UniProtKB/TrEMBL annotation:
Domain Peptidase S9 prolyl oligopeptidase catalytic: 510-722
GO molecular function, one term: serine-type endopeptidase activity
Species lineage: Bacteria, Pseudomonadati, Pseudomonadota, Betaproteobacteria, Burkholderiales
Cell division found in the keyword field: no
Protein's GO biological process: proteolysis
Pfam families linked to this entry: PD40, Peptidase_S9
Signal peptide (residue range): 1-28
Name of the protein in question: Dipeptidyl aminopeptidase
Alphabetized UniProt keyword annotations: Aminopeptidase, Hydrolase, Protease, Serine protease, Signal
Source organism of this protein record: Janthinobacterium svalbardensis
Length: 722
């Protein structure tokens, strides 16, 4: 595949939009509807299939141009084979109803899109022909033409950001220890590739993250002249090189799938960058890692630490007038298992290292925020009771105000530019689409999936609450199968979310899709047990010292309440399942009750001690338990499912048939948990089946593997819920 091509300039796109009534293209997406539509149509609707779920187009987060005229976003044309799957950038006018149009034609896809300050150019990260790692490309949207590669770094480039004058790009890349130049990096990479020894060596920090063994690469900030790079001079400067900060043994950024991030942003004058970094990553197994803010001159010099507390700061944004720096902040070192993220601000230039916490009175964690034109209010979203809506607060603080949002579903991205505010909205029966969010009523701008969704027989989740004995208000969603008849009786499948710092959301999901699980004729129950997010900091913290028993009790009570409330539920035919923390709880339910006819456990832990020692998040598990594994705290053993497996004299223990699934590349809940689980089931002669996916991580992400997983779950439940 050649470089992505732009066949029309913005001017020709406007002409095409004006002529939309006379001609259409196969790349157009209808943009006429203002309200999500997944209601019954004249034609017969069908029960959802795995193909419906998997082949829905995956609409990515939009990025609004600074002038508010355009939004660019990615769309994945899904397929069961990665060879047949495509991902491209699309552009949509925010000034009229002309259809969205494809910008790039590429199989590998693009990410990390950033507009130039004049709204004429885009940069993005892609891995094209000849690229061994993702590189930065520039696309002149106004003039059209081919995208130009701006970087050719051995270890790639990511997260580009334009300087305020549009002349330079700031981005993140990596080096190996001791490297000073790109030639050094290339030589180090060559030496590593040619090594005859395959051993990995570690002296500090966790050796693995999610599905990767970590290497000795070190994160750095680079700056490049955009025009010079386009002419072939793509020599990038490592502006952290030579600073004392990078010599600290615990220096690093936030770890993610693509490497570490320093979450950097240009200062308003373009002379420096502000970024976050940790200096205690080498102590990650014995204390909470937190990221402070630093100021670094682009021309060279030492990094100056700006904040002096032990909070973490991220999502940095400057106000349009350059007088305020906004960030999300949380108290990582509080000693608690969970801390909400609050909106913080600093006067700029920073004279006081202590931030103003704008949302101090809001007992919710801010998911994301933007700074619309005018700068008077900050727009943000947060989770609450299965939904995620828009809110705002005065940029100087005050009361939180709810902004126009759709009554159901979840907003999962936000971007602003000029007068525009755009994002992705979705619900359990409306796959993701781009919406304009700055009017009195959110307006749908794309319709990649609406026609397909309208042909599926599905209903929106029903919400209900109950109160526990200790006063917790517990939120639940109930999902009914296709062709639902309230006069019939249906088995109940309670599905347990992971986290535990998470929440069941009214959204369209690929993994554990509510309606696909309900398809065989089950009612699906989704309970937000103690430890869930979206209900305040104390509710999320209430799981501390009680990782499984309390949440398990609330899941069981959710089943009781659903049976009492809904006469169409057959209380004699119950099943439970979950993944990650939901898998932990599925194992716990198998050990502590015999009420369920079948259990499904994906990526579920068996032994808290083993999980502490082998997963990629040991200290957080220690915080949750209240002390290290050698402290003899009862929770380490009492709330490990394996220690309850043989409690048959109490009428519990492992007896319920269980389907155990795991990805061999899962380092979050390593496969040793699943192997132990299956061994115990075999030892106790419990009906069990073990599925190991050697090419999957914590999630089952490949199309055919996903289809097989759902079919195995369906078959297992059908066998025991007859």
């Amino acid at each position: 595949m050649t470089l992505p091509r732009l066949r029309r300039s913005l001017g020709s796109l406007l002409i095409a939009a004006a002529c939309a009534s006379m001609a259409t293209t196969i790349h157009a997406a209808d943009t006429t509807a203002a309200i999500p539509v997944a209601a019954p149509q004249a034609q017969a609707r069908h029960a959802i299939t795995h193909e419906d779920v998997w082949l829905m187009k995956r609409v990515g987060a939009p990025v609004a141009s600074p002038d508010g005229r355009w939004a660019v976003f990615s769309v994945v044309d899904s397929a069961y084979s990665s060879q047949d799957q495509w991902s491209d950038l699309w552009i949509k006018s925010l000034l009229d109803d002309s259809p969205a149009r494809r910008l790039t034609y590429s199989k590998s896809g693009e990410g990390a899109v950033a507009w130039s300050p004049d709204s004429r150019q885009l940069v993005f990260v892609a891995k094209r022909d000849g690229d061994e790692a993702g590189q930065i490309y520039r696309l002149d949207v106004a003039a059209g033409g081919e995208a130009q590669r701006l970087t050719s770094l051995t270890l790639g480039a990511r997260m580009p950001k334009w300087s305020p004058d549009g002349k330079q790009l700031l981005f993140i890349s990596d080096i190996y220890p001791g490297n000073k130049t790109e030639s050094d990096v290339k030589q180090s990479a060559k030496e590593r590739k040619e090594r005859k020894v395959s051993a990995r060596s570690y002296e500090t920090t966790a050796p693995r993250y999610f599905d990767k063994w970590l290497t000795d690469k070190q994160v750095r900030l680079f700056v490049i002249d955009a025009d010079a790079a386009a002419r072939g001079d793509n020599t990038a400067r490592d502006i952290l090189s030579g600073t004392q900060l990078v010599t600290l043994p615990g220096f690093g950024g936030g770890q993610g799938d693509e490497g570490q991030s320093l979450d950097a942003v240009w200062t308003p004058d373009g002379k420096a960058v502000v970024f976050n970094a940790a200096t205690n990553r080498d102590a990650a197994q014995r204390e909470a890692v937190y990221s402070q803010l630093y100021l670094l001159p682009v021309a060279g010099g030492e990094a100056q630490r700006l904040t002096q507390d032990k909070h973490s700061y991220g999502s940095l944004k400057f106000s349009a007038d350059g007088k305020t720096l906004f960030a999300l902040s949380d108290a990582q070192t509080s000693g608690k298992v969970y801390d909400v993220k609050r909106l913080a601000s600093f006067a700029w230039p920073m004279s006081n290292p202590a931030p103003t916490i704008l949302t101090a009175k809001l007992d919710r964690s801010i998911s994301r925020f933007v700074l619309p034109e005018g700068g008077k209010r900050v727009i943000f979203s947060y989770e609450h009771a299965g939904l995620e809506k828009l809110y705002s607060i005065d940029a100087k603080g005050g009361d939180v105000r709810e902004e126009p949002s759709l009554p159901t579903g979840s907003i999962n991205s936000l971007s602003s530019g000029g007068k525009a505010l755009v994002g992705v909205w979705e619900s359990a029966i409306n796959p993701p689409e781009i919406y304009a969010l700055n009017g009195k009523q959110p307006k749908r701008l794309t319709a990649f999936n609406t026609e397909k969704a309208s042909k599926i027989d599905w209903q929106a989740p029903e919400h209900f609450w109950f109160t526990t004995a200790d006063g917790h208000q517990i939120h639940n969603m109930l999902v009914k199968p296709a062709n639902f008849d309230p006069n019939k009786k249906y088995p109940l499948l309670t599905v347990i979310h992971g986290g535990a710092a998470s929440m069941w959301r009214d959204q369209f999901v690929l993994r554990w899709n509510y309606h696909l699980l309900a398809k065989p004729g089950y009612v699906v129950l989704l309970t937000d047990y103690k430890g869930s997010t979206g209900y305040g900091e104390e509710f999320s913290r209430s799981i501390q010292f009680d990782p499984l028993k309390g949440p398990g009790d609330e899941v069981n009570q959710g089943v009781d309440e659903a049976i009492k409330k809904y006469p169409f539920i057959d209380g004699t035919k119950l099943a439970a399942g979950g993944a990650s923390y939901g898998g932990h709880l599925a194992n716990w339910l198998q050990a502590t009750t015999t009420r369920y006819k079948a259990i499904v456990s994906h990526a579920g832990e068996m032994d808290l001690i083993m999980q502490w020692g082998t997963s990629d998040g040991g200290f957080g598990r220690e915080t949750n338990a209240g002390g290290p594994v050698w402290s003899n705290l009862p929770v380490w053993r009492d709330q490990s499912p394996v220690m309850q497996a043989g409690n048959h004299e109490k009428g519990t223990g492992f007896t319920t048939p269980i389907l155990i699934t795991v990805g061999e590349l899962d380092y979050r809940v390593p496969a040793n948990n699943a192997l132990m689980n299956f061994a115990v089931q075999q030892r106790l002669n419990v009906p069990a089946k073990l599925l190991v996916f050697p090419d999957e991580n914590h999630w089952i992400l490949k199309g055919e593997n996903s289809r097989f997983f759902y079919s195995e779950v369906e078959g297992w439940l059908a066998k025991y819920l007859k």
